[in-house]
Amino acid sequence: MEKTGKELQTPEAVLVVSAHWLTNGTHITAMDSPKTIHDFGGFPEELYKVQYTVPGNRQLAGETKELIKSTNVGLNHDWGLDHGSWTVVRRMYPEAKIPVLQLSIDYSKPASYHYNLAKELSALRKKGVLIIGSGNMIHNLRMVAWDKLDQPGYGYDWAIEMHELLRRKITDGNHDALINYESLSKSARLAIPTPDHYYPLMYILGLKEKNEIPTFFNDKLVGGSLNMTSVKFG
């Protein structure tokens, strides 16, 4: 992620859609100083001590709320930055000077809802806002081969199939197939047992502009049942 941060034009702000903020309705952080949320367990103690102290941007939160017409967006003053956000942005922008906001995922809605909502955010890109979808296209924690974590690229047959299938559909621009991911293959049931980590991809696809070509990085399977594949447009 450090390399990606250096390659991109420095943004005016960062808006993250994280798989770890699931809500009823859609909300955006609207505080001056979002807190660092350590929403995980079983990791080394030093990770819980990490603080990513960045500014928020109340004005941008309000502007984003006004951009979205399909639903009423709540201005949230309590959440902060969960690990789906700060673990990524901290690596890209360690100076912690760029404002960071989070947009929640309305977990009661289908993939099509999130894809279409993302289109309403397109004006933010023109204002220099970097929008990040933070999740995993393949995410089955119950089936992780913990003894294979030291073998980058190791994947179960169904994970390999879905990895290749998802990449191909993204490259071809077949967004309808990706929205209706459950119909892609029987392997989708194992690769995406719940859609929380998949939905962030819908925002990135919805924000794609005409003629933009995807660039893939961190493109590997991990522990048999996860992938860290990232895709960039623009």
Description:
The protein is α/β, with parallel strands linked by helices and 234 residues long. The protein folds into 2 domains: 1-134, 3-Layer(aba) Sandwich (Protocatechuate 4,5-dioxygenase, Chain B), CATH 3.40.830; 135-234, Protocatechuate 4,5-dioxygenase, Chain B. It has 10 helices and 9 strands. The longest helix has 16 residues, at 157-172. The chain is globular. The mean pLDDT is 95.
In short:
With 234 residues, the protein is of the alpha/beta class. The chain is built from 10 helices and 9 strands. The longest helix is centred in the C-terminal third of the chain and has 16 residues, at 157-172.
Defining key terms:
Protocatechuate 4,5-dioxygenase, Chain B, 234 residues, 9 strands, three-stranded parallel sheet, 2 domains, alpha/beta, two-stranded parallel ribbon, globular
Low-confidence stretches: none
Fraction of helical residues: 25-40%
Number of domains: 2
How is the main sheet built? 3 strands, parallel
> What name does CATH use for the topology of the largest domain?
Protocatechuate 4,5-dioxygenase, Chain B
Which structural class is indicated by helix and strand composition? alpha/beta
What is the helix tally? Answer: 10
Radius of gyration: 17 Å
- Compressed to H and E, one letter per element, the order equals HEEHHEHEHHEHHHHEEEE
- The rounded distance between the terminal residues' Cα atoms is 16 Å
**What is the CATH class name of the largest domain?**
Alpha Beta
